[in-house]
Amino acid sequence: MAIQVGDPLPDVTVYNTSAEALSLAQLVQGKPLVLLFFPAAHTRVCEKELCTFRDGLAEYNQLGAEVYGLSVDTPWTLGAYARSLGLAFPLLSDHNREATRAFGLEISLRGLPGFSQRAAYVVDATGRIAWAWVADVPAQEPPYEEVTAAVKALSV
Question: What's the pTM value of the predicted model, to 2 decimals?
């Protein structure tokens, strides 16, 4: 069952690029979140998506929102990927697939199981899903303007 608008953010474990465990729900801390699930590091569409958010990060910072990218890649792969792209927001490893499964996003890519579908969520300051988008196909980019509008709507 996929996460829906109004649902609480699942309390699942993810890992930062130092392989330290974090609770996804604990990231809220009274601020809105933008959670970007992407299928795999070092791929063309994922790079374009993450760089688009990197380039628009100042606006999210002005709105008081934290941006996080999540994939099933290992923490070390994501650390190298973040450095190569010059990202100023954290990438989180869901290598155990807890978050991917909790959000109902697990897919196969080219016959290989266990990837996350591309998706974007805006979480309000209380930890509830305020806006959600899931790609029809992994190559589809998120509606960037809608993500920004959903964050702006929380700060009204």
Answer: 0.95
